[in-house]
Automatic annotation (TrEMBL):
Domain of life: Bacteria
Biological-process GO terms, alphabetical: cell division
Record-given protein name: FtsK SpoIIIE family cell division protein
Stored InterPro entries: P-loop_NTPase
Keywords carried by this UniProt record: Cell cycle, Cell division
């Protein structure tokens, strides 16, 4: 459901303040959207996003909305998890994301990678001393 005109203007005004002033304070906005065009992200907000990721197969117009005018050739490869990224240096690179199976336990894997032993009723948690 679309927001009413006045509500939409208030939300966009607050987003603009966060984006424009937040960077100076070390505060950054992470935004995900289906269509990053000026109709929805006006007033220069879209130009302030430095890290941009486009996943999946997009049209030329979609890539243009995401990365602006560029002479990059985008290829329509039918591969799951493939996309393009611009990390803020105006260099657009192809990348691949991992396929994460259903039920994957991120916390357990992160704990194992950090070498943290879960505490039980008879054991104390031992911090990693590296």
């Amino acid at each position: 459901m679309d927001m009413l005109g006045r509500d939409a203007m208030q939300v966009m005004s607050k987003l603009k303040q966060i984006v424009m002033l937040g960077r100076q304070a070390g505060f950054f906005l992470v935004l995900a959207c289906q269509r990053p065009d000026a109709k929805y992200l006006g007033d220069g907000i879209r130009d302030q996003f430095m890290f941009r990721v486009a996943l999946g197969r997009m049209s030329e117009l979609g890539y243009s909305m995401m990365f602006g005018e560029t002479n990059k050739d985008f290829f329509q490869k039918p591969i799951k998890g493939r996309g393009y990224v611009d990390t803020g240096g105006s260099v657009i690179s192809e990348f691949y994301t991992p396929l994460v199976p259903r039920g994957y336990d991120f916390l357990t894997e992160i704990g194992a990678a950090a070498n943290i032993v879960p505490a039980t009723s008879t054991e104390q948690e031992v911090p990693n001393e590296h």
